[in-house]
Automatic annotation (TrEMBL), chain A:
Subunit relationships: Part of a SCF (SKP1-cullin-F-box) protein ligase complex.
Similarity comment: Belongs to the SKP1 family.
Protein name: SKP1-like protein
Domain SKP1 component dimerisation, chain residue ranges per copy: 124-163
Function: Involved in ubiquitination and subsequent proteasomal degradation of target proteins. Together with CUL1, RBX1 and a F-box protein, it forms a SCF E3 ubiquitin ligase complex. The functional specificity of this complex depends on the type of F-box protein. In the SCF complex, it serves as an adapter that links the F-box protein to CUL1.
Any GO BP: protein ubiquitination
Residues in SKP1 component POZ domain copies: 16-75
Gene name of this polypeptide: ga14711
Pathway membership, UniProt: Protein modification; protein ubiquitination
Pfam families in the record: Skp1 (PF01466), Skp1_POZ (PF03931)
Keywords, in A-Z order: Ubl conjugation pathway
Organism: Eleusine coracana subsp. coracana
InterPro entries linked: SKP1 (IPR016897), SKP1-like (IPR001232), SKP1-like_dim_sf (IPR036296), SKP1/BTB/POZ_sf (IPR011333), Skp1_comp_dimer (IPR016072), Skp1_comp_POZ (IPR016073)
UniProtKB/TrEMBL annotation, chain B:
Top-level taxon of the source organism: Eukaryota
Pfam families reported in the protein's UniProt record: F-box, FBD, LRR_At5g56370
PANTHER family: OS01G0730100 PROTEIN, PTHR32141
F-box domain ranges (all copies): 7-52
Protein name (database record): F-box domain-containing protein
Organism encoding this protein: Eleusine coracana subsp. coracana
Length: 174, 446
């Protein structure tokens, strides 16, 4: 993880970078927080994103980006000291509480987050949202999963295919 | 099926994300998801079935679940298969058909009235490269068809708590022409074990045999029986193992050590003709309370004229007992001690007089000695004090008592460690990178 002071003589005050969402909103954040993204990390290490330039993110809208940054800002301090081996139990519990609440969101936001975490390669966020979806699936029947995940109603063709598979997977509904 | 209506958002996600989501689910949950869309089915069979983990905790009927998954993906290849507690022998045919390469059957003897049986259809898995099996029964030799296919790619077999007769083991080994590693642990007393293998390089075991007969093993490099020296009186015979470099642990409890056709070492018979010049490392247990232990050691060392490393273990837990009144006043020439020995390791050094005498003998005679290691442990009569680290003063005192100045090799180094050598040093630890890196971390600096 890049420490905030690494790089180019910006010691003292934390270095800031600007990110520009697909709908042209500018977000100014600490470089350390933005660097949780593997994709951004290299650009930032190269000195990008400072001053008036800003890093354009054409695949992420402002609503999603603000949510992503909320995660990054919260997790940056722990990440900066190498996964925080000396973080107190209280700190860890606080992060866990934050994470749980963070993914307690509308599904459309959740899917945008999944895509953003994937594109920006934010490891912690990727596994957090994947786990959320997995938890939504766990222990449910296929019809329940369809409803939970907001699949469209099956076409007659799909329904027939599903029925055939449900027969094979009879064990799953005992 | 390509749906024309806009796909749900989840199905629009890239494969990598779907895989990461499915991988967080137990296999049966993940399998159930695949009825949702054909794309999920494809992802499932191409990722999760390749390395099939049939350890589905929380699933009520694992056997049925696995059957259903196999039936639903009839053509998916399976590279490795891991079963825990539940395994149906009928799957072997199915796995064979799908080209299984690694089979890990970690079965549970308590889950059935009798231990699970491996069927001879194991030999249908001709793509196998590695077989690990625990807590099961191997088929009787007579049940294995004479014309059963050879497992030509199998290089590694690990058996743990497996009931297998000597005859079955023989059939298994003879069907594995590329077998390099064979490990047999926790097998109870295996009775007689007979090894004939053109390809075998490593044979590791706990050493609980009545008889271990290495009849023909032209490529065998390591023969390790961790507890071969315990009181079960193994009869060890090595007829043909011309490349053997490591042998251990030998001890006086071994009923007989035979090498080639005309060397035998027993309590009352010593005949030394065929020697084993290939051996580089020997690990022994010293029964210092037994009369004749010194002559046993010196006779044993004569069998290995080019020995370079000697590991010495002795009873570690009980308190000191009186050593047998023996003397290291051995004048005769012992080829390996005088001309080859480079390294001597006292796995548990407690500063006993018998140990000091042995040290003085070895360093006084070995002209090519490079290092002698003392893994120190202080004598204690207090139970629970076993892990006490001896003081630096104690080590200084030992150095004095060992007359290190009278060593034959002026280049020799004497290394004192703050703990005893780990028990599995020769088993797997010595190949572990972390273990190797930290090996010298706890040296005394005196």
């Amino acid at each position: 993880m890049a420490a905030p002071e690494s790089g180019d003589g910006n010691n003292g005050a934390a270095r800031m970078v600007t990110l520009i969402s697909s709908d042209n909103t500018r977000f100014e954040v600490e470089a350390a927080a933005a660097s949780l993204s593997q994709t951004l990390q290299l650009t930032i290490l190269d000195g990008g994103g400072g001053g008036g330039d800003g890093i354009p993110l054409p695949n992420v809208d402002s609503a999603t980006l603000s949510k992503v940054l909320e995660y990054c800002i919260k997790h940056a301090p722990a990440a900066a000291n190498g996964g925080a081996p000396n973080a107190t139990a209280v700190d860890r519990a606080e992060l866990e509480r934050f994470d749980n609440e963070f993914v307690n969101i509308d599904q459309s936001v959740l899917y945008s987050l999944i895509m953003a975490a994937h594109n920006l390669e934010i490891e912690g966020l990727q596994s957090l949202v994947a786990k959320k979806v997995a938890d939504m699936i766990k222990g449910k029947s296929p019809m329940e999963i369809r409803r939970t995940l907001g699949f469209p109603d099956p076409t007659p063709e799909e329904q027939a295919e599903m029925n055939a598979h449900m027969l094979e997977y009879g064990w799953a509904y005992e | 099926m390509a749906a024309v209506v806009p796909e749900d958002r989840l199905s629009g996600l890239p494969d990598a994300i779907l895989v990461s989501i499915l991988s967080l689910l137990p296999l049966d949950d993940a399998a159930r998801c695949t009825v949702l869309a054909s794309r999920w089915r494809h992802i499932f069979s191409s990722t999760f079935l390749v390395d099939f983990n049939a350890d589905m905790r929380g699933c009520r009927n694992v056997l049925k679940a696995v059957n259903c998954i196999l039936a639903a993906h009839p053509t998916a290849p399976i590279r490795s298969f891991y079963a825990r507690k539940r395994f149906h022998s009928g799957w072997l045919q199915e796995l064979a058909r799908r080209g299984v390469e690694e089979l890990d059957l970690d079965l549970d003897p308590r889950s059935c009235t009798r231990p699970p049986m491996i069927r001879p259809s194991l030999f249908a898995c001709t793509s196998l490269t590695r077989l690990a099996a625990s807590s099961c029964v191997f088929p009787a030799a007579a049940k294995i068809a004479a014309g059963a296919p050879q497992l030509v790619r199998l290089t590694e077999i690990e058996l743990y708590d497996v009931t297998i007769s000597d005859a079955s083991l023989g059939v298994l080994i003879s069907h594995c022409p590329a077998l390099e590693r064979l490990s047999m642990q926790n097998m109870g007393n295996s009775g007689t074990v007979h090894i004939r293998s053109q390809s075998l390089k490593f044979f590791h075991s706990d050493g609980m045999f009545d008889e271990l007969f290495i009849e023909h093993a032209p490529n065998l490099e390591r023969l390790y029986g961790a507890y071969m020296y315990l009181e079960h009186e193994v009869w060890l015979q090595i007829l043909h193992a011309p490349k053997l470099e490591f042998l251990g642990y030998l001890g006086m409890n071994i009923q007989a050590i035979e090498i080639g056709e005309d060397t035998i070492l027993t309590d009352d018979q010593v005949q030394v003709k065929t020697l084993m010049p290939s051996l580089k490392t020997l690990a022994i247990e010293v029964s210092y309370t037994k009369e004749g232990y010194i002559s046993w050691i010196t006779q044993l060392l004569e069998l290995f004229p080019c020995l370079e490393s000697l590991y010495i273990r002795s009873d570690t837990w009980s308190v000191i007992q009186a050593a047998a009144p023996e003397s290291w006043d051995v004048l005769r020439y012992i080829p390996c001690v005088d001309n080859h020995l480079q390294k001597v390791v006292f796995e548990v050094y407690r500063g006993h007089e018998w140990q000091r005498e042995m040290v003085k003998f070895l360093h006084g005679r070995s002209m090519f000695l490079k290092a002698m290691e003392f893994h120190c442990k202080e004598e204690t009569n207090t139970p629970g004090d076993h892990f006490k680290v001896p003081s630096e003063q104690w080590v200084m005192k030992q150095k004095e008592l060992l007359c290190l100045d009278s060593r034959a090799s002026k280049d020799a180094r004497f290394l004192f460690f703050k703990r005893q050598l780990v028990h599995n040093h020769h088993d797997d630890a010595c190949n572990n990178e972390w273990y190797k890196r930290q090996y010298y971390d706890d040296l005394y600096e005196v």
